[in-house]
Design brief:
GH; Aamy; 2 domains; 3-stranded parallel β-sheet; disordered C terminus; alpha/beta; glucan 1,4-alpha-maltotriohydrolase activity
């Protein structure tokens, strides 16, 4: 390589063998540890992990050399999909703790130079259960907007009338299957693809 050529991420003039991590963004070189809170540490004896349990283990993450703790959804949820079926993005699910616990987690993590990523799963506001019509406000507004586009959010979900089988029964518009739970669609809505 000609010494006048520069490598995109190299720190030397001649692209020699030098660690170039210093040119990367923090998230490109960080060690990330994902925590599914309900299966992590239980501090209140109810058999489910909680935010206080994550706080108690922050020094453990530091000892492992972790840079970022990625917290799986801790928001209010009916818990049909391990908390990914979020019903309220503004409230912490009481089985995990309180908003004060989350604020304390963030403070304590930052005190140890750890970053926190909160998994918000914006595309999981509907329900995986075909027997339940999701109650989330975004879903309900989008559903009503099929008839009244002025409500907005019409395109926040995929809506399809579905099909009829040879017996006249409503069936999903296609045969897409989820890795986790059978059909990805029901006669009412498509809200995500697993």
């Amino acid at each position: 390589m000609d010494s006048s050529e520069k490598c995109e991420f190299d720190t030397t003039d001649d692209c020699g063998e030098v660690d170039s991590l210093d040119k990367l963004a923090w998230w490109q070189k960080a060690s990330i540890y994902q925590v599914l809170v309900q299966s992590f540490q239980d501090t209140d004896g109810d058999g489910k992990g909680d935010i206080a349990g994550v706080i108690e283990r922050l020094d453990y993450f530091v000892a492992l050399g972790i840079d970022v703790v990625w917290i799986s959804p801790i928001y209010e949820s009916p818990m049909s999909d391990m908390g990914y079926d979020i019903s309220n993005y503004h409230k912490v699910n009481p089985i995990f703790g309180t908003m004060e616990d989350v604020e304390r987690l963030i403070r304590e993590a930052h005190r140890r130079d750890l970053k926190i990523i909160l998994d918000i799963a914006l595309n999981h506001t509907a329900s995986t259960c075909q027997l339940i019509i999701p109650k989330h406000e975004w879903f309900q507004t989008s559903r009503r907007a099929r008839k009244d586009p002025s409500l907005g959010k019409r395109d926040w979900y995929f809506w399809s009338p579905g099909k009829l089988d040879e017996h006249g029964n409503r069936v999903p518009p296609n045969n897409w299957e989820s890795t986790f739970s059978g059909m990805t669609l029901n006669y009412l809505v498509v809200n995500w693809l697993h």
